[in-house]
Amino acid sequence: MFKNLFKKSSNHKIYSPINGKIVPLEEVPDPVFSQKMMGEGVAIIPSTGKVVSPADGKIVQVPESKHAVGIQTDDGLELLIHIGLETVALKGEGFTPKVTVGDQVSVGDSLMEFDLAYIGEHAKDVITPIVITNSQTSGKTFEITEQKDGKAGETEIITVY
Fold first, then answer.
1. Which of 26, 29, 38, 144 is deepest in the core (most CB within 10 A)?
2. Element (H, E) at 122
């Protein structure tokens, strides 16, 4: 009878993984992201080259090209942090991962460092989409922040219900 009385709230926050300007996913100059083909999310125009975990979970992907990090949150959401656009072509140059697949992470833990100037010069764009790749099948709803400036590990960018 009292089983659900003390249950934690079913909503939680996803935090900014990077310091920078928060922009709607629709403004990403790549239709795969802007048309939400990969899922719901938000993007950040980074002001620094440090990426931290936006949620508690497990690292499920660090591609050979090192341009992205995939995290499965403790409640089953799949987050993709995709640093820049067309950065897979850089073949890992300019990226230094701080985690490997299987690592447990908490909000604010270091995931990656990248050379912002190098990416800016050699990739299509430095804008960094943060996408919930299983948003359509999760059964959850997502509220995107109206904040304009993100502080890594501190600014709430997505509320999950």
1. 38
2. helix 116-122
CA angle 121, 27, 51 (to 5 degrees): 55
Q: Active-site residue numbers?
A: 82
Strands 40-46 and 128-132: antiparallel
| DSSP secondary structure letters along 94-113 | TEEE---TT-EE-TT-EEEE
Location of structure tokens 């934690």: 8
Which domains are delineated in the chain? 26-160 (2.70.70.10)
Query: By C-alpha distance, which of 85, 76, 87 is closest to 132?
Result: 76
20: tokens are 């920078």
Take residue 27 and report the two structure tokens written for it: 């403004």
Q: What is the pTM of this model?
A: 0.93
Report the alpha-carbon distance of residue 96 to residue 10 in Å, rounded.
35
Which pLDDT tens digit goes with each residue over 77-100? 999 999 999 999 999 999 999 999
